[in-house]
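Lecture 7 notes: from sequence to structure.
We start with the chain below.
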Amino acid sequence: MTNTDDLLVVTCKTMIRTILSCLDNATKGTIYKIGLMPELTAVRVLSGIRKPGSEELEWGLPADSEYNPPGKKWEMYRDQPGRPLEAMGWCVEKQTSWTADDPMEDPRSVRKQISGVPEDEFHMEPVLVRKKSLYGYYQKLQFPVDWQGNPIWRDSEYVVSAVVKIHFLPGSLKAGDRSTVAVHNLARSLGSELLSLWFREKLYNASKEFARQRLQSCEILAHELRNTLVKLGFVFSAINAQIGMLRERWEKLLQEHLPELEWKGPLLDRLCGLLNESIEESHLSSELFDLGQKLLGEQKELATLYLSPFQEREWMKHKIYPKWKKLLAETNRRDGTEIRSLLERLDNALSTGMSYEPSATIDGLPVELLSRWSKLAYVQITSGNLSQLDEVIQLLEEPVLPVFHKEQMIRGLKSLRAIVHTIQEVEDKANSILQSLRFGNRTEDEYSIGPDVLGLEYDEEFGVGAVDRA
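Predicted structure tokens for the same chain:
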């Protein structure tokens, strides 16, 4: 949209050009914009002066003036004892014109009052618009006041929206003559133009404010939705915790029937034993002693957990390896080679249960069932593989599957599955609403908006819920 100030300048240029074209004795035109009540700031918008011996006009704000932007407030140009009277104050307060056809006798010539030098002949015409058109229901308006504190314009149907000032050749102007009537009539059309510009500006500002509020509402709703979905991310944690119980039973079954497979438990026990020997050495510094104690606790905790191989490797990467590296570097242990070998074997042992492919029955269980169990025991349910949750439930429904508390697990997983699907539906609907708020259009079920719109994603490895990227 074109800037309203630019349109105002164009309108004022048209008005000044029209007046100077119609009046041969007119030499210069200036238009002042009068702001809203109660400040009534008068700002010179534009001046146009006829070039000598030419019909061309020069435009701009060439002279120094208190009315050049940012303008002059009502309290500074109204009639007031102790300062020069101004024609601007008369036009605004009285809502009527001022004609200076005798500069030597002009009581409102500021230059003459201050320096005794008369101005040229000029006519100033207020541009009036209806108060109701500009302010609507105006009983509660704050009216400007004169120097004695009396409100002006209270009983008038009009307000002053602008003032037109036209300068004339010496001896060519008389109050009430054809020139002043022409300026008066043209000022009426300027009032209509200014009112249209004012409505345009109000509409533009209102639309910008509406867009700002709409975007702000959208951001607030999106933030609340993100927080809600993040909190609901516990559903995936609960689902994967149930699958962890399925994984624990699978690994214990393999350990009972296939003792030749290498598991993390014995390896961690050996590492804890070697670590205890290191901790008991008296020459360890307090820092290394505390580090050893912390490592001992983390190794014992890992031995009791049945996490996915990825999670266990992350545990090793961040909690086990760095501490052993520091201990080995600073203690010069003779058993360092054994410890490094144990750590390497431990890394391989973390995936023993997942990499085992059944080729024969175990404890009377069919090979097909064991194969499904070996795979589903290590899945991590996320928003991208919800179909595998159905497979897990179907596996648990197998009558021969030797898992404790199967019925409770099935009921729990089915309830969590319903919540997961509800989350997706809520997210889709909320995204549709947010899309409508953000862009101001109606959205129906055909909108297919993924979590990226809200800056959401689910942890594909851990499956522990929503992660806020915003």
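Points to note: The chain has three domains: 4-206, 233-260+363-470, 262-355. Residues 132 and 138 are 7 Å apart (CA to CA).
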